[in-house]
Amino acid sequence: LLILGIDTSCDDTGVGVVALQPGGQVEVRANRIWSQTVHAAYGGVMPELASREHVERIDAVMQDALEEAGIGVADLGAVAATSGPGLVGALLVGLMYGKGLAQGLGIPFYAAHHLEGHIFAAAGEAELQPPYLALVVSGGHTHLFDVVREGEYRLIGATRDDAAGEAFDKIARLSGLGYPGGPAIAEAARRGNPKGVTFKEPMTGQSGYDFSFSGLKTAALLAHRAGAGGEDLAASFQAVAVKHLLKVTLRAAHDLGRRTVVVSGGVAANQALREAFGASGLRAVFPGKGLNTDNGAMIALAGAAAIRAGREPGGLADGATAYAPLANV
Ligand code: ATP
Ligand code: FE
């Protein structure tokens, strides 16, 4: 069964194709992304501009995805699109496009949760068999879920302030390393000394599973003002951020008896983070190349999981929602 996945939750128009085999295995056949550049001049995403760009691009991105998969639109067996959380106007474009396509083709439509998409982005790499932990580290989330059974997500910890990706972006900006901040910090960190700037690890006193990044951001700003070099700042911040993410996750895994952790979202592209989790003793599963940041293939993978689990397809009434906590979908 070939599933088309669409994500237009923010400023990337993503369309992907995933093949779901009769045995339940999944394989990514295409993953095309158009990253909007109109927002650069504003220093942040302008919601209305994002919606308009999605409208203009989505058809071309879908044609690219079909071409990459070597299929025609009539070969599709199901369509999935993100319904939330995200920018409502942006979400609506992909959601309505997906619904219309599914209805026109007479195939089932699945509304997907963006965070479930981020988690299932890793499903092409390994079989995700609950129970496992899922750490979503992205531009808007630093959320730790205990996936108790298929479709049941218990939020056990989250950032109390900034998301991890937001901290990467802000620290890159204040130290003049450019945008997007994650890759810029990672690149500069390779030449920096991780002990060059002293950062206090956040929330060492807690017994729970929350995160905090705003203190690191402030410390970075002060260090920058005191003359710390961008490379040392990048290496030192990256090291303490990774340490913090890993320590909280390890505590949760120990307390709950979990052995597998799925780490996904844009920050999961970070090589230092991958190495640290890989050497942690946990079975760490990451999304494949191009599937960490927002994309359509991850939504097709979430659709495949829904189909595999026998969930009912959505109706045309599924609306877009800006705020949508992931719990027991
Ligand atoms: P959300 O899913 O929470 O709504 P988002 O979709 O905007 O947020 P993603 O696209 O998943 O977020 O991830 C973007 C974030 O990932 C950015 O903050 C970016 O800096 C970060 N990022 C990307 N690559 C890396 C990297 N190599 N190291 C660290 N961070 C990275
Ligand atoms: Fe995202």
TrEMBL record:
Its cofactor is Fe(2+). It is an enzyme of class 2 (transferase). It is found in: Cytoplasm. Keywords: Acyltransferase, Cytoplasm, Iron, Metal-binding, Transferase, tRNA processing. One of its GO terms (molecular function) is tRNA N(6)-L-threonylcarbamoyladenine synthase activity. Substrate binds at V136, V137, S138, G139, G140, D169, G182, N270. InterPro entries: ATPase_NBD (IPR043129), Gcp-like_dom (IPR000905), KAE1/TsaD (IPR017861), Peptidase_M22_CS (IPR017860), TsaD (IPR022450). Binds 1 Fe(2+) ion per subunit. It catalyses: L-threonylcarbamoyladenylate + adenosine(37) in tRNA = N(6)-L-threonylcarbamoyladenosine(37) in tRNA + AMP + H(+). Residues 27-300 form the Gcp-like domain. The keyword Hydrolase does not apply. Fe cation binds at H114, H118, D294. Gene3D superfamilies: 3.30.420.40. Belongs to the KAE1 / TsaD family. Required for the formation of a threonylcarbamoyl group on adenosine at position 37 (t(6)A37) in tRNAs that read codons beginning with adenine. Is involved in the transfer of the threonylcarbamoyl moiety of threonylcarbamoyl-AMP (TC-AMP) to the N6 group of A37, together with TsaE and TsaB. TsaD likely plays a direct catalytic role in this reaction. HAMAP family: TsaD. This is tRNA N6-adenosine threonylcarbamoyltransferase.
